[in-house]
Amino acid sequence: MIVGFNHNITYRGSGFHVQTEDSGIKKPQLITLLYNGGIIISSQKTTYADILKVDDLDKVVEELAKEQHKGMLRRLTKGEFDERIVALGISLAAPAIQSAAQTPPLQPEAKSVPESASKLVAEPEPVVEPAEVKSPVEAAIQVEPTIIVEEPIIDKFKSHKISNEPSLDELIYAYLTAGQG
Q1: Based on the number of CB atoms within 10 Å of its own CB, is 71 exposed (0-12), middle (13-18) or buried (19 or more)?
Q2: CB contact at 8 A, 68 and 20
Q3: Is 31 domain-assigned?
Q4: pLDDT-based confidence at residue 177 (cuts at 50, 70, 90)
Q5: Measured distance CA(18)–CA(33) in Å, rounded
Q6: Report field, pTM of the whole predicted structure over 0.70
Q7: With contact defined as beta carbons under 8 Å apart, do 19 and 5 qualify?
Q8: What's the domain count of the chain?
């Protein structure tokens, strides 16, 4: 059983929380929820009963949970839930729009190279990537950056070592290697 994943994310001016949990092998399913406050925006459930006998089940389930969790984050940031969010009465900030006249042109950064060095070393050709084709409206829209904050993972069921007593692994190792030297 994995511990789960939690992320707080600011999207278009509103805070959201994405949570993924594993219900364990007695109820083999992964549940991912997208919240705003106490409102569930979306949920996704994946059962994994068909792979319970796979080697290294914990690792496989953890990878499935990570992918499902990241998928929910991607869907939110791509705007898939915008209509539902607004229908639930949650406000989303409109993307900032700048006209082309307000946007300063990009200038290449000036490089200071000693004259003697410029004769010896040829500057590499700049890599020109094909421009993405956008409509004038899309070109004028500047999307607010998305901020993802990862919460620390705390295993509530695992007792944390408080004393200086050796772990069970350390005791077994000491027993097995006693007298060898």
Answers
A1: middle
A2: yes
A3: yes
A4: confident
A5: 6
A6: no
A7: yes
A8: 1
